[in-house]
Write a structure and sequence with these properties.
A hairpin with a 3-residue loop joins strand 3 and strand 4. The protein contains 15 helices and 7 strands. With 452 residues, the chain is an alpha+beta fold. The strands form 2 sheets. It has a 5-stranded mixed beta sheet with strand order 1-3-4-6-5.
């Protein structure tokens, strides 16, 4: 077996990989102890002072809250140091609390009522101090003994020989072997040093892993935290959906009032005027009827445009890509649709409808404001832990676009957030303007069997 073959064996390679983390692990174990001592002193002092002055209420309360914040800081620092050693990151708790925004006493209730603060205090004031004292002692003893054993043969010659009344080799062999005790001691200490240094990666890994396991159990998030975040996200999404629906209804009401309703009123007035002039002035009556016919055509066109705000028939009948191609064909700026969707894919109607609205709004905005000469609408499916429908509208206009609350893209952003999606607008001065919608989807692919 060659040297290369030995070096590439999994066991050997794994052992040398352990050595790559030893400097950081030893550095962590070395600095963790003084940090823990400082944290222990500060938290014990502040908590004792706060508890002792609690009868004054305000002073004791402030000292205890300050103690909790200091414990949070030391715990967060320890999480960062553990991550620096190469350990998997530990997810930190969610410190935000709505009660903190209700004033001073709300902030105090939010801090004192958060169990993570008290766990961090327990960790800094008790657990970390005990664990770091234990691991630091082992680390210092192991490294000092290993290096001392490896170099004993050198520095032992400087020891005063006349005062050495005890040799390790004499105690081990009880004088039964006629060896030079100095040489024997050198060999024994050298062997001991080799063993200690060779096992140092396993010891440092084990000691740091002990810190990481305790920190994960005490300083990490709880399962209930994730549930609370999910509930908060769902509540926010529901609120965004309701808000977007309200904006859409108010906008539709305004558009109907300002558009078709006014034209129908004008149509009624023109027909009434034509009826009065029918016998007295037939030419004027015909002119009024002609104007009434034009008003009816305009009202019909506006109603058709408004109906596209619900869902165009082509979207329901032929799907998203065909509907986007139809919207691109109606665009005042030359536009093209690039579909990267898999063949036979079926998307939920609500997802298709909102993706269509977003692309249509972006096309209209580009035609009105961008000064663009080319627009691309790209549709794709991105599969990660969850499937995402990405609709990206890019124009080569002047850029500088921004959202206005309650209008256009802003309203669509609320609609998408209500579905768990996101909307991004990137429009630097000079262009291009890129509007990207990302919608979570549950897809299915329709399989077709060809008959030869």
């Amino acid at each position: 077996m060659t040297t290369t073959d030995i070096a590439t064996q999994p066991g050997r390679a794994g052992y040398w990989r352990l050595w790559s983390n030893v400097p950081r692990e030893l550095g962590y174990l070395f600095i963790a102890f003084p940090i823990a001592v400082v944290g222990f002193g500060l938290t014990v002092g502040l908590f004792s002072a706060g508890f002792g002055t609690i009868v004054t209420f305000f002073i004791g309360l402030v000292l205890i809250v300050a103690c909790l914040y200091i414990a949070r800081g030391f715990g967060t620092l320890d999480l960062a140091l553990l991550r620096w050693t190469g350990r998997p990151p530990i997810q930190k708790p969610e410190w935000q609390d709505a009660r903190a925004r209700t004033g001073f006493f709300g902030w105090v209730r939010a801090v004192l009522g958060n169990g993570h603060y008290w766990l961090y205090l327990l960790y800094v004031m008790v657990l970390d101090f005990i664990i770091t004292t234990f691991t630091w002692s082992i680390m210092i003893s192991w490294v000092a003994s290993g290096l001392g054993g490896l170099t004993y043969w050198f520095w032992s010659i400087f020891l005063p020989q006349g005062h050495r009344g005890w040799f390790l080799s004499e105690w081990i062999f009880q004088g039964r072997v006629g060896l030079d005790v100095v040489l024997a001691d050198n060999l024994i200490y050298l062997a001991l040093g080799i063993v200690l240094v060779a096992t140092l990666p396993f010891v440092s890994r084990g000691l740091v892993s002990l810190h990481w396991l305790v920190a994960r159990g005490v300083l990490g998030t709880w399962r209930s935290d994730a549930l609370q975040r999910e509930v908060a996200t769902l509540a926010e999404s529901r609120g965004a959906a309701h808000s977007a629906e309200g904006h859409s209804l108010r906008r539709l009401e305004r558009d109907i009032h300002d558009g078709p309703q006014q034209r129908l009123v004008r149509l009624q007035m023109d027909l009434a005027a034509a009826e009065r002039q029918l016998d007295a002035d037939p030419e004027k009556a015909r002119s009024l009827i002609s104007e009434a016919m034009q008003q009816s055509k305009d009202a019909l066109e506006e109603l058709r445009a408004l109906s596209r705000g619900f869902a165009p028939p082509i979207l329901l009948d032929r799907g998203l890509v065909a509907a986007l191609e139809s919207a691109a064909a109606r665009s005042t700026v030359p536009a093209r649709v690039v579909s990267e969707l898999p063949d036979g894919i079926e998307l939920p109607q609500e997802i298709e409808r909102n993706a269509y609205f977003m692309a249509s709004e972006a096309l209209v905005n580009a035609g009105k404001h961008s000064g663009a000469t080319d627009i691309e609408v790209r549709v794709s499916l991105r599969v990660e832990e969850q499937s995402w429908l990405d609709v990206v509208v890019t124009d080569n206009g002047r850029g500088g676009a921004f959202t206005i609350a309650g209008h256009g893209i802003s309203g669509l952003e609320e609609r998408l957030r209500g579905l768990g999606g996101t909307l991004e607008l990137h429009s630097p001065a000079g262009g291009p303007t890129i509007v990207s919608a990302h919608l979570p989807v549950t897809t299915s692919v329709t399989s077709t069997t060809s008959i030869a």
